[in-house]
UniProtKB/TrEMBL annotation, chain B:
Keywords attached to this entry: Amino-acid biosynthesis, Arginine biosynthesis, ATP-binding, Glutamine amidotransferase, Ligase, Nucleotide-binding, Pyrimidine biosynthesis
Protein's GO biological process: 'de novo' pyrimidine nucleobase biosynthetic process; glutamine metabolic process; L-arginine biosynthetic process; pyrimidine nucleotide biosynthetic process
GO cellular component: carbamoyl-phosphate synthase complex
Similarity-based family: Belongs to the CarA family.
Domain Carbamoyl-phosphate synthase small subunit N-terminal: 84-214
PROSITE patterns: GATASE_TYPE_1 (PS51273)
UniProt keyword annotation of Ligase present: yes
Protein name: Carbamoyl phosphate synthase small chain, chloroplastic
Source organism: Apatococcus fuscideae
EC number: 6.3.5.5
Function: Small subunit of the arginine-specific carbamoyl phosphate synthase (CPSase). CPSase catalyzes the formation of carbamoyl phosphate from the ammonia moiety of glutamine, carbonate, and phosphate donated by ATP, the first step of the arginine biosynthetic pathway. The small subunit (glutamine amidotransferase) binds and cleaves glutamine to supply the large subunit with the substrate ammonia.
Amino acid sequence: SARQNILAVAAPEKAEEARLQSSSPPPFLAWETGKAITKRTDIKTILLLGAGPIVIGQACEFDYSGTQACKALRAEGYKVILLNSNPATIMTDPGTADRTYIGPMTPESVEDIIKLEKPDAVLPTMGGQTALNLAKTLAEDGTLDKYGCELIGAKLPSINAAEDRNLFRQAMDRIGLKTPPSGIVESMEDAFRVQGEIGKFPLIIRPAFTLGGTGGGIAYNQEEYQEIITAGLQASVTNQVLVEQSLIGWKEFELEVMRDLADNVVIICSIENVDPMGVHTGDSITIAPAQTLTDKEYQRLRDASVAIIREMGVECGGSNVQMAVDPKDGQVMIIEMNPRVSRSSALASKATGFPIAKIAAKLAVGLTLDQIPNDITLKTPASFEPSIDYIVTKIPRFAFEKFPGAKPELTTQMKSVGEAMAIGRTFQQSFQKALRSLETGLSGFSLPKNWKRKSTQQMEYNMRIPSPDRMMVIKQAMTEGYTNEQLFELTNMDPWFLGQFRELHNTEEWMKTKSLGDFSTEELIQIKKRGFSDPQIAMATGSQPMEVMRVRHLKGVIPSMKRVDTCAAEFEAGTPYMYSSYDGECECEPTSNPKVLILGGGPNRIGQGIEFDYCCCHASFALRQAGYETIMLNSNPETVSTDYDTSSRLYFEPLTVEDVLEVIRKERPEGIIVQFGGQTPLNLANGLEKALKENPLPAASGNGNVQIWGTQPADIDRAEDRDLWYDVLTRLDIKQPPGTMVTDEASALKASGQLGYPVMVRPSFVLGGRAMEIVYSDTDLKRYIENAVEVDPERPVLVDKYLDRADELDVDALGDKDGNCTICGIMQHIEQAGVHSGDSACSIPPQTIPESCLETMRDWTKKLAKDLKVVGLINVQFCVQDGQVYIIEANPRASRTVPFVAKAVGHPIAKYASLLMSGKTLPEIGFTEEPMLKLNHVAVKEVVLPFEKFAGADTLLGPEMRSTGEVMGIDTDFSKAYAKAAIAAGQKLPASGNVFISVADMHKEAIVPIAKELEGLGYSLKATGGTAAYLQKQGLKVEPIFKIHEGRPNIEDSLRNGEITMVFLTPSGDAYDVQDGKNLRRLALGLKVPLITTLAEVVPHMAACLRAGRHQFKHCSQRQVKHHSEAQPEGAIFELHWCEQEREAATDRKNRLQG
Amino acid sequence: MEAFAGLGSSVASSSRGVSAVHGSLHAPQGVPSRLDAPQQSQPIFAGKARCPQLLKASCGRSSGRRRSLVVRAEAGLTPPWVTPDARLVLSDGSVWHGNAFGATGTSVGEVVFNTSLTGYQEILTDPSYKGQFVTFTHPHIGNTGINPEDMESEKCHLGGIIVRDLSCVVSNYRSKQSLSDYCASQDVMGIANVDTRAITRRLRDDGCLNGVICNDASISDEELLKKTKEWSIVGQDLVAQVTCHEAYEWKDPTGENWEYRMAIAADNGSTSKEPLHVVAYDFGTKHNILRRLASHGCKITVVPADYPADKVIGLNPDGVFLSNGPGDPSALPYAVDATKSLLGKKPIFGICMGHQILGQAIGGSTFKLKFGHHGGNHPIRHDSTGRIEISAQNHNYAVNPDTFQSGVEVSHVNLNDGTCAGIVVPALQAMGIQYHPEASPGPHDADICFSQFVDMMKAYKSGANPEQVAAQALKKAEAAAEKAPSGVLAEAA
């Protein structure tokens, strides 16, 4: 048989003859020649579990993997049912899966869906640890068996073996692989025993079954050890932690492995960590492929990975194996493995062009690797190991500045919120590109102008204990004459990396002795090949970035685009996936089609993440459908937008003016879309426009010049520049809270005197609520001016009247080139005004706002859209106090709320927006009526917060955004929808018990009705002195309890004893609160007691939810949410209806468990 | 610094209009001294002006001839790179400017590419590459230096080495020497800082090309081009240059540290029994083949390529092994003849060149592939079990299965292009594998071939019927393919 298969190719002369005779001889295709197809035909319907909200350690890479899996399975003819609570995902778009449920990721919900949809199989390996944990529960409690549902992709034993440290170690022992000396700990006594056995610090503590190593850490001494053990035992679902000998300083590697049901195993990618062991791999700078291994060493790791995936019984799909290698003697230790796609596999997919999730989904339904074509070459099978001829660098992005009090140190617990990836022909090039992709003010491996030099002691400490800015610390050390040997002593980074850094440093030092005009063409090429950006060259030579670019272009030093093809150019590939180099041959072959360039959002950070990627993807889908060639430019490996088949072309490049302009010069699109990627592309808009004005470029299609589409940068500025904004509002007669701009402390005090406390203060250049604060007194204000911000005439501070206990609302609307405007949705925030809109739960439609106020908002939004010449999206924030509407701000761009609104109202508004930008009008696309007016359901968004990752940070909500992700609940009324959202966000809603209340004086009046409602619902109330007295006076039955400093037993004791089921604790801002309040909030968080830190209108609703919660919902019916999607009118989003009946499913489960 | 430009009319007529594609980026190669006045935008041409002073002043990464890479430029004084000082001229007329390392002079050879991500040292010392220039597609080469353990033969056989970036640092606990020092000591020329991807694309599209590396500026591009056209690998008996001169014993198995994990599980114990005696024809054998045979329990007598068949029989081996080797398999009629006379008398196993010799001995013919297979990631399907091996590959020729007599089974197929990757002749107890089951460099997936050969020899020794032996071998392969995952899953079940 094989012989017949190979005739065509193996006999060249004959083939040549054949070609002459017939113009198309059949090419050899591995998947047409194999054994009988093993694809499962007994499975028809597959339930796919998503990953839920974005949290640290689990970001939009699972939207990427889930979306790929949906597409792949449907392409194979299966019906795909999807559950995910995260509305900001492409996977939950109607049209991705056959049927989509947006709701809580709980065993109860899954069971309800299984009952309704009767899937044959559940695929849990695409939704991260969330999905895997959910599957574990359902498999263990018998639910899956009950409904005859099979787990595909990973079976229960392998899920357990990978997560249960003991089983894992036993498995490694069986196949002769070493693991670090360690012990499983289930109690403090265990912990001491294991510590004695291992014998020395530092010790690494890893809890079982947690995301991104929550609750883990490195203990250097006894005290830390006890502390981390306690936290770890709490964090682990199984109350198990692993204590192991620290391998700090060892080299760390990861291999991405795939296996099919026929036991074929391939390695997709090797990843080497630049940061040695001790830093969580998610927080490490990593590169692919590994650089410091000989073939023998690499093959040893490969053999181990293959043996591990077999031994662990991962029957098919992707896994990643983490290994440590002793740099002194090459000894190998196995650290862990994940039996599912992970963040690393998303990275490996983007790094190699091999779509791991897509292939894994196909393997799960029985296909083998050789039965699947390699997407990129199209001629060779997926059963191969990608070879790459470039270097990929990933650098994580952190958000420690958002969590004052948390130590910016990197440990085995993951803390990064996003990452940037860059591709370069060499390590140096990709490393510098990755640094500038981070958008943290770096233009490469050069100290930024505002770098605060560290003292020797600080610097050496920061190198021993890595911090987010460790690369700059190393750079500073180099400028201070540290040798590579010294740096190695301090950092343990492999000398290979240090050598590369040194060469970059030397290049920069050499450049500093030159002026721009001195460089020869050859020298400029050499500099650019090393990844130096124009701003870096400008800084070194005392020039300006645009001048560097001009000189460069004059000398013909421009990038050449290379393609990512999985095979190092061995085979011809039709891949549209590109990166820039300065290596000569340019492979981009631009077309002359009408095309549009979409700028993505760059690395995820708090305030800018998956929501913007959702918008970018929609723009690409819509415009592709409208006949444009779409070109995506982004640097975030976790996203759907950087999937190579989302757009017609993909440039994996940093989002800087230089890099974007170079792509524009190659591609010459008709339009550039900057308003979908969040703040990142908007920040580039002015620079791009200036460059395009100075040097107009004709579009490749011949249709005019390259230009920015949508709302013009000048108009965006009018909404952002305070003076211009004031003019707009005055002209349009729109009210805003009184306020002023000050440049020193005296004028600040004067201004707040006039306005009256509380006032909202923020720097004028504020982004995403950075350094914004509500102050209640002169003392407070002085502290803020002294500590929080630098105030000078260059950097004024805004002082606004803070509208206390007001309602905040968000309006999303669309405008077109003719000045039409349609309101898409109005969201009422559930937290009071003053909490960042990104951290606030919200509801569509609004629940308690008078229609007259809504009308005012509609009117103002339309006026603004017209005046700002909005083409595309605009988001306006309003405040309502005592029936009076105030405007807070307007953002003439896509906002974070777009995906939520789109799913709530059932219209793809990001798609509409992109069509409007391409020149269509609202009547043309048929969107002229506000869809919210016809809604017959309520959609609620709730957020998730990462406080538990940042020990020491206060948990208060405020004007500074801190949430990482969001969930959506949808139902017929508000309280049910809210309860769903709250459950989906992981909040526990206790049905009874003691509620502890401690509120600031200014909130005492407001708490009374809430307390009454709680009492009416059967909760017992406890309160500290002042609050207790006040509530008792109002006729409530309240038991007083000591504050921490008042004596024992106090509230801390009660909390620790589990006597409190919910906490209302608002900050008063006084010294007591800063101390005890913060500790109590952290304690409640640690003990997972529901904690409410804000008051206002929300709380009765909260209580209503709690009441509803007591009736134990049951999903009794489903209903389709009408969604206006051309792509797939049938496949749509469904809501599950909840009835107020005894919860049958829950009882059923309980019985089964007991039985 | 691989700036290259057209070479007169030969390039202008080249199929892809090289000079047009690269011209706008690639500035003149003549790099004027940095003391020169600021430059104007210049037309693109292949200038030859060099600045020897600058060369001397610079002391950078790419100058392998300077013994130590530790000596580096003082920051700030000179740029940390060296001006292009070497050329690679391909027979299609393209000229690539880069930096010389290793030996100096002028060197001609056939240019191939290798897509392995690791293992440059093994490739360098693999005799199969005799006379070839290897373009490494992986951009960083030399990172882990050279160590004495990973040698595949006594010396470096490559004609030249073409890399994108020669590592400025060597970092590995076993390294004893830098790559460029090693090349210099082996008199092998290297060129760095050329666009290896662009070269690979050419080789892919145009097939193998001859090339010349030269760091003598006095020789013109045209003369170098002429050299590439005069030289040919076809029909050359390169084997004679790499085979051993007299027979010797080989006993060393793979070191304990590096033993193949799967192999231990498969064949533990076989070493303790009476070792099987294998006569291995050395057509340029890689040491790792001998190590793997030893690890699988063989005692090996390595013999020169022209060792007469009757003398082999005289050694009374349990089996005969035909090694890999360089060049054109049709240039070795004597080896084919020897194999013919051994066929049916002893079990025979051929790898790579050995496979092609076996193929010819059983009546098949070989042909040259367009650009060969050189890498560590090619999928192979074992036909009877469907099992896939990721394999190490290094060959430019393949056997044409259409030319076989009946009784020859194509056992393995290369899934990238469908070429024949392995044959079995059950009646004659012979097997051939086109790729490299011994890996080094490359994955260890195909190690089972050695144990199949061992089984074949054992059965022969015990006087079993050849057909039974074949059936047993198949059974073993199937068992390996269907091996149920042990461990947790099995336990749970």
